[in-house]
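**Discrete fold encoding**
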Amino acid sequence: MSAAGSVYISRSIFSAKVEQIFFALFLIPIAGFYLAFTAYFRDQDAWQLEATAVAVFAVFGLVGVRVPFAVIIGYLLHIPWDAVHEFNAHAGGSLLVPRQITSVPLGYGFFCATYDFLMATYFYTRRNHWRAAWRASLRDGTTM
């Protein structure tokens, strides 16, 4: 439902170009939620790895403002990141050294991974529209 709502609202209010920019930049706060969890759960040892991951996803988001495949790849790479957190926090696993990644609320990793997959699939279907919008704006000299 969250992915369907995101698609419906974004298509209702954004042009194709602005939609790409929005979802590319939205990857940054999506990754940033893990910093909020780090603070909330007081996982002091997790700050370095979590902040590094946010920086990596921020690069994908910033590049994705202009390059559609960077948005797709960024959201797809976020899926295993969600899965590792869910597995470590709730399945008794330790895919990474325990305490190096933050805890997450029950089910958050599954929710986020599902959202990321559905949105990446949607972005794949929209990539040609996004490219066409950028080409048209360059041809016409418009910015948005």
